[in-house]
Amino acid sequence: MISFKQLPIEAKAAVAAGVVFFSMMLSRSYLAEKLDFRMRRWLLRLQMALFVNTLMLMGSLHVWRSTVTTFTRSSAASSFCFMLWKIAVLVFLALAHSSFFTLLFLVAEEPYLFSLAAYTCLGAYIILIFFLFTLGSVEQAYKFLAGRGAKAGTGNKNRTAMKPVLAVLLTVVLTVVGLLNASQPPTVNSVEIPVHKLPSTMNNLKVVLLSDIHLGPTVGKTKLAMIVRMVKALKPDITVIVGDLTDAEAKVIRPAVEPLGDLHSPLGTYFVTGNHEYYTSDVSNWFELLKSFNIQPLHNENVKIVSPASTSDWFCLAGVDDIEADVLRYSGHGMDLKKALRGCSSEHAIVLLAHQPIAAKWALQERPDVNLILSGHTHGGQIFPLNAGAYLLNPFFVGLYKVGQNTFVYVSPGTMYYGIPMRLGSRAEITEIILRSP
Question: Which Gene3D superfamilies match (predicted)?
Answer without folding.
Answer: 3.60.21.10
